[in-house]
Amino acid sequence: MSHTSDGPHVIIIGAGLGGLAMAIKLKRMGFTNFTVVEKASEVGGTWRDNVYPGCSSDSFIHFYSLSTDLNPNWAHSLAFQPEIQEYVLQVALKNDLYSNIIFNRKVISAQWDMRTQRYDIITEERNGTLVPMTAAILVSAIGLLEVPKFPEVPGISRFRGETFHSARWDTLVSLTGKRVAVIGSGPSATQFVPIISEDPTVNVTQYCRSRSWILAPARVEYSTIQKWLLRHVPFYLKAFRWFCFIWAENLYFAIFGNHSMNQVVEQQVKAYMMEATPAEYIDQVIPVDPNHKVGCKRVIFDTNYLASLARPNMSLVWDPIESITEDGSGAFDVIIYGTGYVVDNYPINIKGIDQSVAEYYRDHGGPTAYLGTTLPGFPNFFTICGANTATGYTSLVFAEEVQVQYIAQMIKPVISGDILSAEVTAEATDAYNRDIQNRLSGFIWSKCYSWYRTGNTGKIHGLFPGSMILFWWWLRRPNWAHYKVVTVSGWEPRRSVYRTLGAVILGCLGVGSVAYFGWT
Ligand SMILES: Cc1cc2nc3c(=O)[nH]c(=O)nc-3n(C[C@H](O)[C@H](O)[C@H](O)COP(=O)(O)OP(=O)(O)OC[C@H]3O[C@@H](n4cnc5c(N)ncnc54)[C@H](O)[C@@H]3O)c2cc1C
């Protein structure tokens, strides 16, 4: 693929796993005229920022890693943050990506110019200098759980003690001998609370709003033999990755695919929680709302959280926080927010033909996209980890790689100069969203409170309504009939006999798997 300095330029916003996956794909296509713009000073995204004690993946790491860069040396099945961050650094080095990344540069805004068929982009350096850039193709890889969210409690900024969000853990603050208020009880808090409360001088009061289903621990340490086999036995590493994929897909079918199976899983999780929770907390932590099924929120594997509640320096408070005073009502030295992320809106002012992404989302009841990847009115703009692409049970990196394959097919004719732009039609987007919202209405998520929904109770914008096999199937190839294309010279998408044959074979395999694993 040709590359000239004035040929189409691709800008990828964000150097997390999603942005790097896109960059690797472009390089493998032989295309190097791209720039990754990253506001921080290193790659890694989630795994660079979340340095709280005990931070780890909750997906099996052999599947929660890039298919292009398998790693036989993972220490645990659910990897800890330092190891994942090290992996991301190695991926960037190995694929020689650093020369394509601009660090400490934040994308502030972008505007599609119909005449030039380019995005005019404004970026900002750390010192406030604004730097304009242009790109024919703009790929947003800004993640989903990136902007820390704080609760709307009066007086939150008045507190004069140490305070930080779990996603921006202040490693300079020692908790020893301190009275610590933890606000929130989601996945991050359940990971760091048992670690910080290990020190008996740290007095932890955890403010909880909602209960979570907590599954039995899933972390195992890989033995030396297992790692040796993964390193040396041909195909074993790939086969093991497939095993992790299938295991997670089974989790999907057990939790979401079938109401009776969900009941069985719930009984098992309840039995585990009854056994692991100290008696005085059983009535407080086990969910009782019949609409709050296992899987309503992202699956949490126990990391010794339930047992840690028995520690004398741990207590839970379920009353809502009315306000925060300067001295934390004389009760706290440190407040740690484990209150999640802003996920309802799009944080960059990207304007397409006639509106911004944020306005488009607002007009559609929250984040909305076609296949989670393209938006009508935004030619040549792609969202990795866009609306309705998360899963709640398996690796988001898989969904992102599926999107990357799709985007690569979409941008190939732009890069080769056959077309100038492609824009998904509003009709295709609306039909797609009617379909997925109709499917989602039958899932357990439609009855419970979670960040998967706009304002926690509105439209489900976070999740894909099906297994990842279906997601892959839908995104395996673009349907060009759903796109308006500005061509240079009467370009037509190529149809390959082999591709059609391949699709039929894969279709049969997909139907076979569905028949084998069951559907609803
Ligand atoms: C603690 C934690 C644990 C998780 N564990 C799992 C798990 O086990 N399994 C799973 O599937 N998912 C998990 N997730 C979700 C996780 O966020 C995604 O799996 C994955 O990291 C997303 O990668 P990403 O590259 O899309 O986004 P991110 O990792 O969020 O990276 C986005 C990047 O974009 C950059 N950026 C944002 N805005 C701008 C801007 N305006 N200009 C320039 N750069 C910008 C950010 O600095 C960041 O580097 C977890 C999330 C958290 C917070």
From TrEMBL:
<keyword id="KW-0812">Transmembrane</keyword>
<comment type="similarity">
    <text>Belongs to the FAD-binding monooxygenase family.</text>
</comment>
<keyword id="KW-0285">Flavoprotein</keyword>
<dbReference type="GO" id="GO:0004499">
    <property type="term" value="F:N,N-dimethylaniline monooxygenase activity"/>
</dbReference>
<dbReference type="GO" id="GO:0050661">
    <property type="term" value="F:NADP binding"/>
</dbReference>
<keyword id="KW-0274">FAD</keyword>
<dbReference type="InterPro" id="IPR051209">
    <property type="entry name" value="FAD-bind_Monooxygenase_sf"/>
</dbReference>
<feature type="transmembrane region" description="Helical">
    <location>
        <begin position="496"/>
        <end position="519"/>
    </location>
</feature>
<dbReference type="InterPro" id="IPR036188">
    <property type="entry name" value="FAD/NAD-bd_sf"/>
</dbReference>
<dbReference type="InterPro" id="IPR020946">
    <property type="entry name" value="Flavin_mOase-like"/>
</dbReference>
<dbReference type="GO" id="GO:0050660">
    <property type="term" value="F:flavin adenine dinucleotide binding"/>
</dbReference>
<keyword id="KW-0560">Oxidoreductase</keyword>
<protein>
    <recommendedName>
        <fullName>FAD/NAD(P)-binding domain-containing protein</fullName>
    </recommendedName>
</protein>
<keyword id="KW-0472">Membrane</keyword>
<dbReference type="Pfam" id="PF00743">
    <property type="entry name" value="FMO-like"/>
</dbReference>
<keyword id="KW-1133">Transmembrane helix</keyword>
